[in-house]
Amino acid sequence: MSEKLGAFTFVLHSHLPYVRMAGRWPHGEEWIHEAAVETYLPLLIALRELADEGLRFRLTIGITPVLAEQLAAGDVLANLESYIEDLHARADRDVARFESDDPARAATARFYAGRAAWLLDAFRNRFGRDIIAAFRALQDEGYIEIATSCATHGYLPLLQRDSSIYAQIRTGVRMYERRFGRKPESFWLPECAYRPAYVRDDGVRKPGVEEFLAEQGLRVFFTETHMILGGQPVGKAAGDAPGRYGAITELHTIPFAEYEEPTERTTSQPYWVASPHVAAIGRNGETGKQVWSADSGYPGDSNYREFHRKDEESGLHYWRVSGAGVGLDEKGFWDPASGFGRTFEHARHFVSVVEQQAAEYHERTGRFGIVCAAYDTELFGHWWFEGVTWLQQVLRLLAGSETVALSGAAQYVREHPPEEVVALPEGSWGQQGTHFTWANAETAWMWPVIGAAQRRMEDTVERFAAGATGIVREALDQLGRELLLLESSDWPFLVTTGQAREYAEQRFSEHVERFETLAAQIEAGTIDAAYLSDLQHRDNIFADIDVRDFRAREGTTAPMATTVP
């Protein structure tokens, strides 16, 4: 890479909550079907096309363990195949419905029918009905770097017990090893939420998130822009008044390790976090806003397909964005050729921004830096229908760039190890960079329940795990699955945003009830085999879960060394 001025990586974070066998439209398993049809399959096809062209591209794709487990489930894949067939049928019916009176709309319906046939052929024949295997093959061939994450996307800073933080991470790593045949190097912190080390009122030291990652041999994680560019730790980690978070945990500051922090922080370099074991890479703000900005981001272009308006009969999309402030009832007709055509101009502009970022940093510092553009994978194809084509074109153009080299995140850290150590502040990529999106007046009732379940899990493991066999061991394993599922950050997120509040509250309460019922049966020595079997069928993720991961860990982790090698 040294002959070029800098590196670039897309970091695509792929995640959906556990919705297998947990309802259908509008909330439930169809979330997976929609994401697979609109994002995951088109992305796989796009990357395969680039590989077939002989381009040596590289990017980072995170797949959360809970999503990977669902995408590998036979019943989910069978339902996905039926979903695509139904999509094809709906498009065919629209062709017949519009052919005589609205030929333009009928042509778009034919486009949808052809696209459904294309996706179905790729799913069945090109990828052998195995989406996870298709991603694994791309990694094995050196095109992508797959990052792992917490088992069920648990929000780590708000988990009271270190046992649950450890189990979320360890279960995610174990799943990755089983599904992808290697040890992971890069890790997506759910919601980019980070917690530094601190000391509780009782003198017990709570380790920073990076210490849990280092214990699993992970090399790099990702942060929001302000986490790198900001100053010293703030909020709870700095000892400020706990405010609305006081009921969750109370933190006291500890002295920073003895090292010199960089005089100028930048997202163009990775940094060791607290000690030289695990690196963090911050999201590049300039490239981020090209896509995320509501005012100037590419998806807001008037030619792109409108996400929020659907045909009342078929559910297909026939309208375009049409411009800022245009009401749904006033949207113009969407033309696929015009929409997809705009992606090429926007790709060229994005590549110019990337090359400018890399060149300016190199000119200013003389250093080889990285531009990290992090997004939710589902943004491309699902929310921004033409987005996968845009992403493919960006990779095609950057593969031929004389300025920027394409890289994976862990690859970059291996080839360009950090030279400086930072103390990151506590925070996330949520509202105002705080935990508010997940911990607020609307969700305050959930966190004491989560904390109580974590403590009960520790106690149950202490009493029953040693030497457990047969139905007791099966019940303990299932208890661990239910705890992981109730810890998902998706439930408080959906409550706060109101996107699916009743569904999220129901799902959270169901997993709590399953956890408490099963725990009581284990404690009483009266495990109901039929009840356990039903839970094992419904919540069957993480076949190799190890209940010993949930053992109490408070005060057992020593601070890591802080000397930079």
How would you concisely characterize the structure shown here?
It is built from 17 helices and twelve strands. It is α/β, with parallel strands linked by helices.
Protein topology:
Elements (H helix, E strand, L loop, with lengths): L5 E9 L15 H23 L6 E5 L1 H7 L2 H25 L4 H24 L4 H10 L3 E6 L12 H19 L5 E3 L9 E2 L5 E2 L2 H7 L4 E4 L1 H5 L41 E3 L5 E4 L2 H8 L43 H30 L3 E8 L10 H13 L4 E3 L2 H7 L5 E2 L23 H19 L5 H17 L3 H8 L3 H24 L4 H10 L27
Parallel strand pairs: 1-2, 1-10, 1-11, 2-3, 3-4, 4-7, 7-9, 8-12
Antiparallel strand pairs: 5-6, 8-9
Helix pairs in contact: 1-3, 1-4, 1-5, 1-11, 2-6, 3-4, 10-11, 13-14, 13-16, 14-16, 14-17, 15-16
* Shape, per Cα inertia axes: globular
Largest sheet: 10 strands, mixed
Estimated radius of gyration: 24 Å
* Low-confidence parts: 231-259, 561-565
Structural class: alpha/beta
What's the overall average pLDDT, rounded? 90
Order of H and E elements: EHEHHHHEHEEEHEHEEHHEHEHEHHHHH
Distance between the termini: 23 Å
Number of helices: 17
Number of strands: 12
Helix percent reads 40-55%
In terms of DSSP E residues, the strand content is 5-15%
